[in-house]
Write a sequence for this structure.
């Protein structure tokens, strides 16, 4: 569904992404892991048009989107969340999602209908009891659910999640995993997620890409990848004889 | 149109450009180090011009001699403005916007205060040496701008030396590059901000004196001078003393060149079009850090 | 309760419209005219300034375009300002479209500086453009009606404009368009990921605001029977627009309205009885105070202070 071919991105002298290839099939939940600074968010920024790739191609449902602008990519059905959650702080939870619904891909023009749909989404992520709370007063886990609701309001077919599980405790992680599956199963959304929390990755992904220094290190099923020596070395360092 | 006329015009422009550089260097400094966009910067230049004017006209003190006193006076004014307006505004969520709007208010207050107390009539500072000209070949170089230029170069050089070769100056730079790190090594950010801001106002005052020897000044001319401050700062790159100096010379060169061929007004329009172009395509400035 | 509110508003509007019938002294009509004008200016400014968060210091450029349009049309073609004022609005909208295309890409401070630049450059151009009277300005004849009729017509016209502008802004605030603008203000990048066509929305706000300001300027220009670059492009008017919107609270439609009414009344009184410069000094100070202590507007500040007292 989403395919990257030889994607490259530099920032001045720094090669952030080099000849990256990846494929995410429809209906899959795929993970992207790698040490800090390996280029994961850079890849997401390239896919969503914030910092487009310098060379290579990004193809979505058969069409090339490499040079599209962020709002065009959103309109095509790719939604994203941010690593550091960015709700619209000045607005209430409901207003946040309502705005997203109005500009989403469901042609809803009226404020009333928009609010109704927003409320449904808030129920889906179990944030409806906080609908009138100003977004800046939510706790971290709630802000993440808000971010998710907002992304879903777009009515995406593809969702990029950037470290949604960070900072959650065990119960919250379990709840979030269930939510991710519900998004895939009930809403039919393909999910590509960046994650550090291994428990979450193992619990959700059917395929994982590993990148380091902007280069793909490994790809495959979670069990295979976690046993790959190159991956272990990347995270833990070389095994030393002395 | 003879070549010497064109060169004469260019030289005039360069001299003016140097003075514009002095006018702008303080502005870039506060923007770069404190993220404070001080729109009232140029109004203090006009204030400096007035102070020098009154000292000359009422007490017969030659402007050049009054400079140290003037600089000190405006340093104090800057410190007061810092304490009253800038320091509170630095705590805002969006310091750049808040400081811009607040200093807009300050500019209007100071401009109208000057207009109220001293009347809006144009004045000019004309010490005896400012009238005559030096002659090189068949080109005349007016002494007023020349002295202003020398003043500007000296002041900018002093500022540069201060920033790079004194303890406090290096503290200013450190705070600019890494506020938290600077605080960690014991540099007092509040004091650094105070000194930076007060210095920038003082430099504006000095520039005002230089400008006053060339052009007539009046309270509302500050908005025109403000435009030049933006122009030079953005072309030169915010916060870079050398960049501002070079930008001043470049702008001066363009002014001189165009003034030889175009009516004065269109020179200004050209410059502002240039500013817009730079904002759009190279906001870090031509010589920016 | 809602019906009671509506009735009160309608009553107030009726009083305002009928006011001239009691033949008040000229001073009052002039005062109201000034208030209505500022309402129109602040509301139209707030579309981009308050809702979208792009603070423009060049709004008077659009106001002046409108003023000069009616002035020139009256001077050269003898056309009635009630016809040419909307034309002034259209010219302002075109100007906004041309200027907005590059300038709206700039963020925050750079945008504000560019907007200031626009006003200053336009002033310079108009000072030297003979077609519009350059530095002497343009005088033109009044309409061939009595002085009282003149004042009455202009009072009503400006009141209508103030009402229309306020209603338009209020409508936008509650619409999808308004929600999009607010999203841009809160976080422009996130707004893009939500599928909001940010450049286009900003343009719309800019152009609409310009059109409204231009039309207001069109009526003003004629009312004054004289336009001059230094008067119409005054930086002080820019300050007042900003101040009034921030003072009242720039996040709602009612903020600029309240700010404009309160402050333009106060301004006129101070200017008339004390002096123009003192008024400006006070306004500069007020702007500084508002930014430092009440950035969300005086009403919000009062509300919070009240809540703190209670709680």
């Amino acid at each position: 569904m989403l395919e990257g071919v030889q994607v490259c991105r530099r920032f001045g002298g720094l090669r952030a992404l080099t000849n990256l290839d990846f494929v995410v099939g429809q209906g899959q939940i795929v993970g992207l892991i790698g040490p800090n600074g390996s280029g994961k968010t850079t890849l997401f920024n390239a896919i969503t048009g914030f910092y487009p790739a310098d060379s290579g191609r990004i193809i979505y449902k058969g069409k090339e989107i490499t040079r599209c602008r962020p709002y065009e990519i959103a309109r095509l059905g790719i939604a994203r969340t941010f690593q550091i959650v960015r709700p619209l702080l000045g607005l209430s939870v409901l207003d946040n999602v309502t705005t997203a619904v109005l500009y989403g891909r469901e042609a809803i023009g009226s404020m009333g209908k928009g609010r109704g749909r927003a409320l449904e989404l808030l129920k889906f992520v179990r944030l409806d009891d906080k609908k009138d709370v100003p977004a800046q007063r939510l706790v971290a886990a709630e802000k993440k659910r808000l971010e998710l609701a907002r992304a879903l309001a777009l009515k995406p077919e593809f969702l990029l999640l950037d470290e949604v599980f960070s900072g959650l405790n065990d119960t919250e992680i379990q709840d979030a995993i269930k939510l991710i599956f519900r998004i895939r199963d009930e809403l039919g959304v393909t999910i590509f997620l960046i994650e550090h929390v291994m428990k979450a990755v193992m619990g959700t992904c059917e395929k994982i890409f590993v990148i380091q220094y902007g280069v793909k290190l490994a790809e495959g099923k979670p069990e295979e990848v976690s046993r790959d020596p190159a991956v272990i070395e990347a995270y833990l360092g070389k095994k030393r004889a002395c | 149109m003879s070549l010497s006329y064109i060169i004469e015009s260019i030289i005039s422009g360069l001299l003016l450009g140097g003075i514009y550089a002095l006018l702008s260097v303080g502005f870039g400094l506060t923007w770069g180090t404190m993220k404070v966009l001080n729109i009232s910067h140029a109004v203090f230049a006009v204030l400096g011009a007035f102070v020098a004017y009154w000292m000359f006209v009422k007490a017969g003190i030659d402007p050049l001699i009054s400079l140290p006193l003037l600089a000190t006076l405006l340093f104090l004014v800057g410190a007061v403005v810092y304490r009253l307006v800038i320091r509170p505004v630095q705590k805002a969520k969006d310091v750049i916007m808040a400081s811009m709007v607040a200093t807009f208010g300050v500019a209007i207050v100071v401009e109208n205060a000057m207009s109220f107390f001293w009347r809006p009539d144009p004045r000019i500072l004309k010490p005896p040496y400012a009238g005559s000209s030096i002659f090189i070949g068949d080109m005349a170089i007016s002494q007023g701008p020349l002295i202003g230029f020398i003043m500007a170069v000296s002041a900018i050089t002093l500022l540069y030396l201060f920033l790079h070769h004194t303890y406090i100056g290096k503290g200013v730079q450190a705070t600019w590059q890494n506020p938290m790190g600077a605080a960690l090594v014991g540099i007092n950010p509040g004091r650094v901000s105070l000194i930076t801001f007060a210095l920038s106002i003082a430099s504006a005052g000095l520039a005002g004196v230089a400008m006053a020897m060339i052009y007539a000044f009046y309270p509302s001319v500050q908005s025109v001078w403000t435009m030049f401050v933006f122009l030079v700062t953005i072309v030169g790159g915010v916060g870079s003393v050398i960049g501002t100096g070079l930008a001043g010379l470049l702008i001066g060169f363009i002014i001189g060149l165009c003034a030889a061929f175009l009516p004065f007004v269109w020179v200004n329009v050209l410059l502002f079009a240039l500013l817009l172009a730079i904002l759009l395509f190279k906001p870090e400035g031509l010589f920016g850090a | 309760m809602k019906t009671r509110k509506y009735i009160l508003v309608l009553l107030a509007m009726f009083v305002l419209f009928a006011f001239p019938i009691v033949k008040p002294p000229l001073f009052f009509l002039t005062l109201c005219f000034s208030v209505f004008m500022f309402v129109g200016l602040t509301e139209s400014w707030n579309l981009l300034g308050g809702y979208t968060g792009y603070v423009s210091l060049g709004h008077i450029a659009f106001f002046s375009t409108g003023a000069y349009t009616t002035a020139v049309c009256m001077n050269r073609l003898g056309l009635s300002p009630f016809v040419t004022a909307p034309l002034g609005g259209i010219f302002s909208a075109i100007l906004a479209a041309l200027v907005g295309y590059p300038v709206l890409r700039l963020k925050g401070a750079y945008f504000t500086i560019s907007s200031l630049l626009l006003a200053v450059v336009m002033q310079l151009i108009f000072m030297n453009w003979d077609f519009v009277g350059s530095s002497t300005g343009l005088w033109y004849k009044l309409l061939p009606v009595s002085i009282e009729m003149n004042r009455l017509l202009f009072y009503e016209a400006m009141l209508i404009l103030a009402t229309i502008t306020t209603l338009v802004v209020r409508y936008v605030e509650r619409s999808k368009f308004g929600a999009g603008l607010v999203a841009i203000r809160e976080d422009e990048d996130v707004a893009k990921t939500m599928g909001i066509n940010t450049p286009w929305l900003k343009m719309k706000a800019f152009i609409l605001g310009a059109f409204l300001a231009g039309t207001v300027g069109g009526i003003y220009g004629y009312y004054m029977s004289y336009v001059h670059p230094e008067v119409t492009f005054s930086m002080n008017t820019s300050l007042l627009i900003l101040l009034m919107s921030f003072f009242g609270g720039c996040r709602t439609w009612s903020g600029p309205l309240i700010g404009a009414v309160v402050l333009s009344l106060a301004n006129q009184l101070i200017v008339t009885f004390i002096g123009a410069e003192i008024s400006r000094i006070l306004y500069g100070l007020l702007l500084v105070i508002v930014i430092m202590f009440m950035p969300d507007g005086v009403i919000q500040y009062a509300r919070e202070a009240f809540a703190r007292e209670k709680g």
In short: Chain A has nine helices and ten strands. The longest strand of chain A covers residues 14-24.
